[in-house]
Amino acid sequence: MPNSNKTFLRALNGETLPVPPIWLMRQAGRYLPEYRATRAEAGSFLDLCYNPDLACEVTLQPLRRYDFDAAILFSDILVIPKALGQHLAFKQGEGPQLEPIRDASGLGRLSIDGIHASLGPIYETVSKLSDAIPDHTALIGFAGGPWTVATYMVEGKGSKDFANIRRFAYGDPKGFDQLIDIVVEATTQYLLKQVEAGAECIQLFETWGGVLSENGFKRWVIEPTKKIVASLRAVHPDLPIIGFPRGAGLHMIDFKQQTGVTAVGLDSGVPLKWVAENLQKLGPVQGNLDPMYLITGGDEMIDETRRILETLKNGPFIFNLGHGITPETSPDNVDKLVKFIRSQ
Ligand SMILES: Cc1c2[nH]c(c1CCC(=O)O)Cc1[nH]c(c(CCC(=O)O)c1C)Cc1[nH]c(c(CCC(=O)O)c1C)Cc1[nH]c(c(C)c1CCC(=O)O)C2
Q: Is 66 a residue of the active site?
């Protein structure tokens, strides 16, 4: 049963609360000077991800400032390809770089055998966090959705058109299924360990789900997510799981009903009246302030926040952004946002 102290878990359990719980995607990050200092101390972003003491520290930093209702483990979705044996580097200013796997002949380079040795420091971070966070704060573990993780594995970096992965998936669907199956298996094992170490909720970030065709979305977003949810629930029947299928539009209803996720994360483009009348009737929703409003601040940010609160107030709701917070955000605007929501 959810600890009644933790409003975040209560909302996930279906309660409609007068003031919604709040956390922000990428709440630990470069917009905070104390994050930049700890990252410099660690050496690099990846060194920070694999250093349990410092990863724990940066997870706690936004809680100290804003007392968010949930903490999210500090790590990255790309630790899975790395654990499977794919070389990963983060180049300053360029984002992630992996040795791309462009077709099924590259799958032999991946192995599931060593994943826990590679991911061990992350389990240690979760366990430290579980002891360190305040009693009223929930601890979120996470992984990338299999399709999104695969986009980086196949493209080798961020992409604008995802041409390589769509060519692989549409041209050799059976071969591509094998890649997705490997990612599903690794992700399931990884998340089970996070829950064992103390994660109370899991979020699956399917950031690039929206680039797929209709059948592609069913086969490579809905089906793999359903498998992960079923495997986690076989061990932890009550585990809350949030799916964030960014850009999924009308697929969100099938996504919610067919995968069995507890809640759906909304990107900023989703019409909220439609959400209130359709999706929120099926379970809790989370979102969806455009992170750019945290840069502009001002009355526009408050007006947009008020619209979101007003439209989703009649059902279970968690306040969040529609995508991750950006480095240019002013910490004062985050403060203003949180104070406004809590003053309602
Ligand atoms: C696609 C994706 C990635 N990582 C993630 C996603 C899915 C969500 C989304 O779309 O934002 C998820 C992620 N990445 C990070 C977290 C930590 C937890 C949190 O505070 O939300 C989470 C949940 C830390 C991070 N992951 C990254 C940073 C910035 C690294 C730095 O400090 O230099 C952080 C704090 C780097 C990263 N990691 C990734 C990219 C493309 C980049 C480079 C872009 C960028 O620099 O912002 C892959």
A: no
The beta-strand segments (E) located in 224-328 are 241-245, 263-265, 285-289, 317-321
Tell me which residue has tokens 């990255």: 76
Query: The tokens of 340 are what?
Result: 């406004």
Question: Is residue 30 annotated as a catalytic residue, yes or no?
Answer: yes
Q: Is the peptide bond before 51 cis (omega within 30 degrees of 0)?
A: no
pTM equals: 0.97
Confirm or reject: Cβ of 340 under 6 Å from ligand 1.
no
Q: Are 46 and 90 contacting, i.e. CB atoms less than 8 angstroms apart?
A: yes
- Report in angstroms the alpha-carbon separations of 148 from 25, 244, 246: 16, 11, 10
Q: Is 311 annotated as a binding residue?
A: no
Q: Other CB atoms closer than 10 Å to residue 282's CB: what's the count?
A: 14
CB proximity list for 244: less than 8 A, separation 6 or greater: 25, 145, 203, 204, 205, 206, 207, 264, 265, 267, 286
Does the C-beta of 72 come closer than 6 Å to ligand 1? yes
Please write the tens of the pLDDT for every residue from 166-198: 999 999 999 999 999 999 999 999 999 999 999
In tens, the pLDDT along 83-113 reads: 999 999 998 888 999 999 999 999 999 999 9
Residue 342 annotated to the active site: no
**Domain 7-342 falls under CATH 3.20.20.210:** yes
